[in-house]
Structure formats: C-alpha cells, structure tokens
Amino acid sequence: MSSKRKCSPLSSIGKKQIMGATGLLLCGFLVTHFVGNCTLFLGPAAFNKYSHALTSNPLIYLAEAALLGLFLAHILMAIKLVIENKKARPVEYHTYIKSGRGGTFASKTMPYTGIIALVFLVIHILGLKFGTQYSTTIDGIEMRDIYKTTIEYFQDPLHIVFYIISMIALGIHTSHGFWSAFQSLGLSHPKYMPKIQLASKLFGLFVVIGFSSLPIFCYLQGGH
Amino acid sequence: MTSENSKFKKLDGNVPTGPIADRWKSHKFHMKLVNPANKRKYSVIVVGTGLAGASAAASMAELGYNVTTFCIQDSPRRAHSIAAQGGINSSKNYPNDGDSVYRLFYDTVKGGDYRARESNVYRLAEVSSGIIDQCVAQGVPFAREYGGTLSNRSFGGAQVSRTFYARGQTGQQLLLGAYSAMMKEVHKGTIKSYTRREMTDLVMVDGKARGIVVRNVVTGEFEKYTADAIILATGGYGNVYYLSTNAKASNASAAFRAYKKGAYFANPCYTQIHPTCIPVSGDHQSKLTLMSESLRNDGRVWVPKVKGDKRSPDLIPENERDYFLERIYPSFGNLVPRDVASRNAKLQCDAGFGVSATGKAVYLDFADAIKRKGEDKIRAEYGNLFEMYERITDHNPYKMPMMIYPAIHYTMGGLWVDYNLMSNIPGLFVLGEANFSDHGANRLGASALMQGLADGYFVIPYTIGNYFASGKFEKIDLTHPEFEKALQESSSKYKKLLAINGNKTVNEFHKALGHIMWEYVGMGRNEAGLQKAISEIQALREDFWKNVKVSGSSVDVNTELEKAGRVADFLDLGELMALDALERKESCGGHFREESQTPENEAMRDDENFCHVAAWEYQGDGAKPIRNIEELKFETVKLTQRSYK
Amino acid sequence: MGGNSTDTMSLNLKVWRQKNNKDKGQMVDYKLDGVSPDMSFLEMMDTLNTKLIKEQGDTIAFDHDCREGICGMCSMMINGQAHGPEAETTTCQLHMRKFKTGDTIVVEPWRAKAFPVLKDLMVDRGAFDQIIAAGGYVNVNTGNPQDANAILIGQENAELAMDAAACIGCGACVASCKNASAMLFVSAKISQLALLPQGAVESEARTQAMVAKMDELGFGNCTNEAECEAQCPKGIKIENIARMNREWFKGALGSRN
Fold it and tell me: Would residue C240 count as lying in a domain?
C-alpha cells in the first residue's frame, strides 16, 4: 500500500458521497420550500409578502446559484454513474432475477423517478416563476402577485395531475435517496439504520402528501 | 531389515545434536547467513499457496529474496488449507492449565505413535507460540474472551486447552492472513504470483533442483521457470482414494514428479481417516464433507443389534441398539481417537450392521444430549454443523440421529526432508502436508495448520539462507537442454493421454482406483489384501493407458485433460502406498495391519524392526523402488504402547 | 432413512458455452435425465459432463474446488441468481432437491467487465487479487511481533471483524449487483481490518488504495440496493460498505493532498 493518498472526489465512493450530500441538501431545500409555500394557506397577502421578501433579497441570486449547483452536481453525477454502471457489465445476463431480499421498487427506479422530477422542475419553474406576471400592492409596496399566478395555474386539472404524479415520483425517489445518503456517507449504524430507513419512508410520504396538498388547495381557492 | 533390496541407504536427517530444547536455537546460530544486500540475487519458486506456501513466499520475499509462486486455482487464496475448521494448536499456555513446549512436543510424538523425528517435533512445538503472535499481528480475527484476550479450547481429546480458533473457519482465516502477507509482497514486486498453473515437472541441472515446467491450464501451453531453489508446498495425496475430504483439485502430481526425478517419498502408507464425515449418498458423490470431531463430545454412536434392520431409528428400542464404542471401550467410549472410532465403524458396517440405503453409515445420536442439556444448548454448540448436515442430507438431526461414516482426511506421508526441510535433492524443499514431516503415523487435531505455518514462517526463511550461502549458483538459461527435455516430456504425456480416445472416462478410472485403495489400503490392511491391491492397481493402470477417454483438445481450458494427468500419477502413487503398507509389517497410528494387533484389537507397533522412516526411491517405471530408511531415535520420549480401554 | 428419494428428475438445461476468451459464445440447450435429488448442483453438472464425454462432446468448464462452501471457487449464475435460489448457499452446497423434474435451469457465468469469461462458466477473478494487493493487509512482516495477548480486542469488535472476514471472495456480490460493483467484497476486507487495532492504524490509506484499484479495474458503483447482501453466500452485510464509506470520508477530510 503506498503512502500516497488517492481520494479523488470522482472515485466511486467520492461520486456516491457527492450524490448523497447534494441529495440531502436538496431534501433540505424541499423542506424549506414547503414551509415557505405553506403561507399559501394563509391567503394572498402572506404568500405574496413571503415571495417578495425572498426575491427582493440580493442574496437570492447566491442562493439560486447554489441551488442550481446542487442540482447540476446531483444530476451530472447521476448521469456519470448510470453510464459507468452500464459499462461495468458489457454482456447482459440471459436471465437475471432480483432475489427480492435486496432492492426495493424505489431503489430500482431511481434514474426514472429522478428524470420525472427533473422534467417536473423545468415545467414547474416555467409555469410559475416565469409564468404570467401580475402585480399587487401590499402595505404600500408594489410586488408580484404570485398568489394569483399560482391559483390560476392550478385551475387546470392537467397541471394538478402532473404535479401530483411528479410528487409521487419524487416521494419514491427520496424514500430511497434519503437513507441511501446516510449509507453513502458512512453515517449508518446497525442500531440506527432501521430508524433512518423508516425516516426515509416517512420523508417520501411527507413529500407526496405535503406538496400534493398545495395544488389541491389552489384548485379549491379558484372558486370551485 | 524387511526390504529384499540390498542397495538401500540409511538416510541422515541432518539433525543437530545437544539437548533437545537447544537444538533449533543452536542450529539457527550455526547456519550460514546471506548478506541482506545479496538476498535479492537469489530466486525461489514456491509451488502451492496454502498455509505453508503462502507463509513461506511472504516471509522469504520480506527478507529480500525474489519469489515466484504458482497455484492451480484462480487465486492463491483458495488453497485447501481454507477448509480446516477446528483450530490451531500452540503451546502458549494462556489458560494456565499446564501446557508447555515440552507437553505439546510430547503429545505430538505420542499421538504420532512414535514414528516422527523428535527434533522436528520439538521445533514445531517451540515455534508454535510465535505463529499465534504473527497471525494476530496480521489481523486474523481469533475468538476472544470478554476481556479482549484470546480464547482457547480443548480439541481432539487433548488434556489441555491449547487450540486457538476463529469460529469454525480457522483454516480460512489463517490462510487469508498468509495470503494477505503474500499479496503485500506482490504489490511490492518481490513476489510474482502465477495462478491457474499446474506443475508438470521438476528440472534438475547439475544435480540441483533449478526449475519447473508448468502447464497453463487456461491456454494449455507449457511454461518454463528457473530459480535457485524450488519449494513444494503442494499438500497431501488423499485424493488417491477418489472420495476424500480434500478439494477436487488437490493432487499429488507435483510431489510425484519430484519423486520420479529422484526425491524420496517417505511413509506413503500413513493416511488419516476422519470418523465423522457425512456418508456417501450415491454413485454420483464427488467428494466427502467432514463435520467437526467435537460432535462426538455429545453424540452417541450406535448401530442396530440385528443385521439389516431397516426400521427408522426412532422405532428401534433402546435394548435393540448396540452402542459399540461404549461397549468396547468403556472408559473412553465415544471419544476414542480418530483411527479407533473409524475402524470400528467400518467393522460394524462390513459385518452387515450398517445403516442407510448403502449400509455404509452408523448413527450418531444426539437424543440423550438434547434430553440432558436441552435443544437450545445443543443448538448453540453445534448449530452450524447441524445446519450443514441438514443442507446436505435433508435430514433434521434434532429429530433423527445423524448418520456418519469415516473418510480419508489427511496424509502424514510425503516427500522425505531433512531437518532443514530439504529433500534429498539439493535445492528442493518441501513444506506442509506435502512433506512427511512431524506427525509420524498419525496427526493430532489442530496440528496441520500449526505445521504448515511453522514451516513457512519460521523454518524455511532460515534454512534456505543456509543453502544459498553454502553453494554457488550460476544463472541458468531457460533454453538449457534439461528444460527442453522436461517440457517435451510433459507435453508428450498430455498428447498421449489425448490420443488414447478409449471408452472409459477419467472419473471411472479414478473411482475404480479409489475403491481398491479404500478396500485394501484403507483402515484395516493385511498382506493378502495389499498384494491384491497392487495387482489390481497394475491392471487398472494398464487399462487406463489403453482405454481412457479424454475429451477436448490440448489448447484452451480442458479440465478432463487436467484430471487425466493427475489420475495417471495417482495410479502410480496408489501402488507405492500399497507397497509401503505391505512392507511395514507393523501397525502404527493410521496404518493398521491386521496381523499386528494387541489382544484388545489395538494397533501394535514393532519398534524393533520398524522404528524408522521408509523413504522410497524411484527406479524407473515398472521397477520396484528401493526402500531407504532413516532410523528414528527416541532420546527424550520413551516408547510406550497406547491404550484407550 | 438414507438415500432419500429414489425418484430421479429430468431437467432442461440452458448453459452458456464459450470456447475461450475470444469466442462470442451462446446459450446451448441440454436435456439431462436421471438426476438424483441428493446430488449437489455441481454433481449434476458432473453428470452432464459425463454424458457429454460419452457423446463425444467437449465438457462444460466450470470452477470448483473444495465443494464444501468455503474456498469460493464455484461461481454460477443459476436461473438469474448468483449461486442459485437458496439463501446463504454456494453452488456446491445447493442440492438438486431444490428443483423438480421438468424444470428448465439457466446456467451462466458471472458477468462483469472486470471478470472476463475464460471458458464456458469459468471467469477470471484476478481483479480481486489485485484489489487485495493494493492494500488488503496489515503492513507487518514475519518476525517477532508482541505477544498475541498484548493486543486486547473487545469481543464485539472481534465478532464484527470475523463477520466481515468470513468473505470467501467468490464474486457473487459483483455478479448479482446490477452495476457489477465490488463494494461488498472490498468493504468486507476494509471493515475487518478497520475494526481491529492492528489494522486501524492504516485504515484510511488502505481504503483509498483499495477503492482506487477497484475503480481502475472497471467495477461499477454502488447504488445501495443491497442485492449483494441478499445473494452473498456468507451473509456479509452492507453495513460494511457504510463502514468503508466512512473510512474513505475520514481520509478525504483529513488528506493533506
């Protein structure tokens, strides 16, 4: 064993740890995003004020850049992993059966649920952040009426269905990704692992139910 | 002297003199050393990477020698040392129960039925302590007590707890330790490791062992390698019997090739039979599986009192069962030594009392132990063995008695070596089970691992230096005619095998040989049987070279061709074993001559005529080999008759 | 009792045949009668080979040695599972009573870029040796180390180290992983040595060296699906992979270059 250390971030473990770390941070984003969006339930003023506070802060560019960085790192690593993993077995098996004792549906579908989440992300940003611009004045300050955009956007049942399907995919993705990150970072322990795995499933469930409640709420606010 | 051949030699084991406890120390001092800077100028070939080979290769490479290793498997880590379950003996005396170097030495000499060289055995006991230190330093995960110290157990009827173990996988863990040490040197470039190579000949130049020819079993090509010394650590020859607990690739070819080049083969008739193996289930059986001897601590061995009683064992009432070991040996009962237990099981089966569809099994019953200790206790002690038994036989030993039968397990005989572990061919060293070594006529449990590692870690690194420092070594070119000749001979042997294209498979011949060996050169041997064995083997060999069918070609992988090459050697070795057994007209350890037994049917030695090693010297195919002898002197331990009544 | 069932089975076998490393290879169908339920899977293959010899064919090459589940030499993908359907069982210990007459059994070699096929079902697992050579040891020479009992090791860590050390290096983890990753094998050795004081000293450097070698040899990445654990004949746990990841992370944080 040579004394020269070899710990490239692009080694197999490095990549996994980048996946895990960025994944966990993105989970953190999901939580803050949800908490912020809960202002929707409080009515237009609260939501618009929250949104204005967020977007008028000059640090938002830094935050958005960081977020973009996380997404890009997570996605690029995922693409690299999928390509490398494909290469590691150039000849496929004639018959290949999962024992059923190991992988789960979530673990097997990570690339697919990830792609759904990515497509959703683009459509989501285009439809809302870059959606119809309205403005409103609250407490004498002129600001974007993002509440109106949101309520309008979710009057289309197609939008709601797509949103919920995407959240189910993201929920499945995080239900494996959350505990998996702990495993990749080496933060696992036989005593705590079952709890972390349970927490992972609950997190996935939270993503599905929590986020899905938003478009349904918006739909109902639209005079239905 | 029993040999008719008057040309026999009296061999000198080069044993140092002086008090036995100082011999190795003084020998180490008197041996010549190779200057550290000069070590890299010497090269060593090691054939076989089990405990002895891997530990030797690693230790010599660490010293600075250029080492090249060869193994038949796809990795050095797979050698059959890996299958040893029980443990490794050492005279550490950690449990404070009275063990010492002297006691381990004494037990080993006595256990070997006074047919081992005292000085070698003493050295073995002496270095045994260092082996444990070395293995622990390497990270071998031995069993521990709660306080973090090493755990010991008593094994194979020993009266002290001197056995260190790593669950039931001690051999595996020790081998992986030696393999890791070896791979460390591979990384440094001091060892070059070749896998999937089978040694087909030894090359001698000017009377010294200077190289080998191997067959690359992937390409089918023959390759030549040269070195200043050759070490054979190629294991035992139990597979002569076809069914044994040895791995399928375990073979005697390397050792037997060396024999044909003039190395003496010592005590080939000394074989060990293990009593607690899983019986044969049918003709398809390819190998036997051993279960730890510890089972006899709680299991009771019995057969029905009525011949051919086909009732299920739970329907046979207590008074219709014959607990024959308890009946014949009331004081030791089911815990009599391996050979005694094995022989009695076979006697019962031969007399028609055997159970199972084949009639070749006896019961090992845990019902009483389960009643006495409770099923949980039994599960805790033997759970993994019971599971293994059930996996193989589909019978639940908690409900029904196990069935067991003896099987060939270890061979004490092997190439003759002196105190330096060098054969009579200068530069040819033999380590581990491959040499005739330290176990005499019978090996104690947990001593094989000890001997393999003692030879590799602590003996050969010293003695090989002495050999190098004592002579001159010119560089040999691989184009040397001796290499060419050896390569041609190897190649033509395999061509010949392929060309026969007869009508019987290699396995059929191997099974037939195994049958002869088991019947006549097995647990009980007698003159008529041994003579019969010799003539039957000769006939079988003739048939083999006329009628064997080897499919495939000489290029690429051809496992049938590999097997054929090995069986050809087994046929010769089997005859030599029978001959050795015939000429040793005494019983000792694993060699039981029915003509030589006490009134209690115990093995009876003939110290007057046979207190020696028989070292066979090849005289050409078809010619009777010469039986050279090395007298065994017992200056420290007194010869006594063992008794287990 | 004994010689359990006298009924023999007839099987349809689909076996991968490939002459050598350069040949393309294909699946070939065989019919085999007279298979006893007491046979091991390898004995069934022996029987098929005997039939092939009698029919003037070339025998099917497969790796095997100890036939008692410890050497790690046998390596068959049986019906899409490494070492077949039975949990914690090597191919040599799998018995034909797990199958029934008329079954079709698909037998393939381990498939991985790092394990090239040599012939039929025989693959080259030399990559594992290379990974061990990169660092799978304690750097200690033969000599006079301290007394064995001078190193105290708590029973719990000793047992965990032994759990990891039980790896037989058969490659079932690589074969069963959808990414042909060798993480379970590599982590078992890293874990064993990281758990023991003798090996802990150089654990970070060892981890980096072994992981670098594993990557270089073309094994895939771990995606935490635990299929390796499920199909490991010795029940090696993926908590070892987590321990390896931790050792690697510690090394990455503490690295000076």
Answer: yes
d(CA A179, CA A50): 32
Contact between residue B448 and residue B272 where contact means Cβ atoms under 8 Å apart: no
State the sign of the Cα–Cα–Cα–Cα dihedral C80, C82, C85, C91. Answer: positive
Cβ contact, residue pair A94, C108, below 8 Å: yes
Q: Looking up tokens 């080492």, which residue turns up?
A: B67
Cβ distance B119 to B15 under 8 Å? yes
Active-site option among B338, B343, B443, B593 = B338
pLDDT at A5: 54
What CATH number is attached to the domain comprising C85? 3.10.20.30
Q: Identify whether the C-beta of residue B396 lies closer than 8 Å to the C-beta of residue B390.
A: yes
Q: Are both C13 and C102 inside the same structural domain?
A: yes
For range B620-630, the mean pLDDT? 96
d(CA B192, CA C40): 36
* For range A165-188, the mean pLDDT: 94
B513: pLDDT strictly greater than 70: yes
- DSSP readout, B573-618? HHHHHHHHHHH--S-BTTB-BTTSB-TTS-B---HHHH-EEEEEE-
Interface of B with C in 162-201 (CB under 8 A): 166-167, 169, 172-173, 176, 179-181, 183-184, 186-187, 193, 195
Beta-bridge mates of residue A172: none
Domains of chain B with bracketed CATH = 20-270+412-469 (3.50.50.60), 274-407 (3.90.700.10), 481-607 (1.20.58.100)
Domain boundary among C111, C133, C165: C111
Residue of C nearest to B90 (CA): C148
Give domain status of residue C77, yes or no: yes
DSSP assignment string, B286-309: ----B--GGGGGT-EEEEESSTT-
Query: Chain C: residue nearest A84 by CA?
Result: C220
Structural domain range at position C39: 9-111
Give A182-213 pLDDT, tens digit per residue.
999 998 777 888 999 999 999 999 999 999 99
Closest CA to C135 of C190, C96, C178, C198: C190
Nearest-CB residue to C245 (from A85, A102, A186): A186
ipTM value > 0.90: yes
Compute the nearest-CA separation of B496 from chain C (Å).
Answer: 18
Task: Return the closest-CA partner of residue A20 out of A170, A141, A194, A186.
Answer: A186
CATH code for the domain in which residue C142 is found: 1.10.1060.10
Strand partners, A149: none
What one-letter code names the amino acid at C192? Q
For residue A82, give Cα distances in angstroms to A14, A17, A91, C128, C222. Answer: 15, 15, 16, 23, 11
Q: Assess whether C165 and C80 both reside in one domain.
A: no
CATH number of A13-86+106-221: 1.20.1300.10
The verdict on C186 and C66 lying in the same domain is no
The domain tally of chain C equals: 2
Asked whether B613 and B120 are in contact (CB, 8 A), the reply is: no
Pick the range with the lowest mean pLDDT from B52-66, B89-103, B290-304, B608-622.
Answer: B290-304
Number of alpha carbons in the 13 Å side-chain half-sphere of residue B397: 28
pLDDT tens by residue, B192-226: 999 999 999 999 999 999 999 999 999 999 999 99
How far apart (Å, rounded) are the C-alpha atoms in residues B179 and B169?
15
Mutation pick from A3, A74, A84, A95 vs chain C, by most beta carbons of C within 10 Å, is A95
Domain boundary among C67, C84, C111: C111
Per the domain annotation, does C31 fall within a domain? yes
Look at C80 and A107 and tell me if their CB atoms are within 8 Å: no
What angle in degrees, to the nearest 10, is found between the helix axes of B527-547 and B559-583? 160
Domain boundaries, chain A: 13-86+106-221
Domain membership flag for residue C129? yes
